[in-house]
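User: Batch of two.

Assistant: Item 1 of 2:
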Amino acid sequence: MDILEKIIAHKLAEVENRKALFPEKLLEQSVYFEGKTVSLKKYLLREDKSGIIAEFKRKSPSKGVINSHAKVERTTIGYMQAGASALSVLTDSEFFGGKNEDLSEARKYNFCPVLRKDFIIDEYQIIEAKSIGADAILLIAAALTPEKLIALAAFAKSLGLEVLMEVHNKEELENNLSEHLDIVGVNNRNLKTFETTIETSKELATSIPDDFVKISESGISDPASIADLRGYGYNGFLIGGTFMKTARPERTAQEFIDKLNRI
């Protein structure tokens, strides 16, 4: 069983447990549920922003504990002050050390779009995403059948959420494109070896239709890589570990974006 299969197996049980603890009717009473969402797609296309989706995460399956001391409020406010276009918040607890409250806290202190980063396999999690203040959700092609991905994307759109679909290769991309997606993200991490290379994003660039905003995810540690990827039509760049592995992620983001602006 590879790591993704292990995560999905755990997530199936977790979702059933959460449904019993927090029924949908309860989630729908959240102050965020009827609120208007902020467009991640539009923010990524804004010329006054960096295109960076700055991520808050405490650990990962490949790296273990990354940063157990960072505070959501200070880090996310700092990310936005640095010039990030949006925030990504990990809400998976078992494998990434996150929680739903992290996203709600980020929402409380920031006006920008907030992406819920999790392993979404059920409509319940999409209702949950809206209830905690998310503006967009992630759907991972490798974790879903094409039919399930399209159904979940359509449901998310019905709630006013934008959808980022993540792919790792051309087959996943071609099998899952639909009108219910807003953004296509290429994950540069090989799920089997955990190695990352931005060449993956470059190889898939021309296969992504222009109807979708293109973003590159994972393994971006150098501002020059962003300048390079922009030449391939990418408008968004999801960066987590590069910032979070340092003592003050928001300061690292500021230095990174300052360098990017000078290129």
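Item 2 of 2:
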Amino acid sequence: MDGAVRTALETAAHRYFELSARGDTAALKQNSIPSVVASFAGIEAAVKANQAAFAGAKATVRPPFLLTAFAPEPLARAEFLCGVFGKLGQTKDSAVFVLNDLPPGQYAVAILDVNGGQHVSTLTFVLQQGGIDWKLAGFYARPAQAAGHDAAWFIARARAFKAKAQDHNAWLYYREAIALSAPVDFMSTLATDQLYDETQAAQPADLPAAGKSVDLSASGKIYRLTEIYLRAVGNDLTGNAPTGNDNDLDVEVVYQSADVLNTARAFEQNSAVIKALVGKFPELREAFHAVVARAVDPSGRDYGTLLAMKDIK
């Protein structure tokens, strides 16, 4: 990459970070490409949600990536192979980006490591060249830690669980490691590719994944589980008060329910699902502080219940 281009990208990334830390969404919008300006509400919400974490933090820009889309019309699937690739694919310094419905143009990806604020995180900007300026084309903020732990910690714990034949714990920890490893979902590296392969090899067949649901028998009923994932403690189910130590980790399971408006019955069903889940997979007691069951009705309404492991009999 030309030195002047690299400097321009790093300067733009620092400027947009500073605007984000100040919550200056008006300036960010003014410096965005037209399609982003037309639907800016999502970025505005993300800036407001992360402003407290960015304020007072220091941001370090990683070496940026320059992406050129040569095409007469938008590309349904634009794949960019960046860096040096070997006979087996990616190397330690390479990266792959896959962007959908990408109009022709000159783009860049600038990733910032944000430290010293409330949380350790990454902030990724997709930039598009407009004249001599680099305009904002995408804004992606993502935590780099969960419950005070980074991806390496979750990988080590996942492998330890795998060695003890606790495949369900291992898979849940692997998935969290993947989420913390890549700053954006449309980027992959040698490390994330290897971690994904390791995760896929550990995936149990009796947990919901990749759109596949599984059935769980609880208190004489069959419940259809649609999702299960690790949940870092910090806020309660409504996003208000803490539910436990910030370093605690819970497991959350989502299932289909006919109706959640009767909260007493929903609580009873949630409790039954939690007890049945831990009864079926007792290894969860070793890996998690609590279990959250969330019932979701056909309209999308949900009702959640948390039970600490010590209270699950």
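The CA atoms of residues 174 and 198 lie 8 Å apart.
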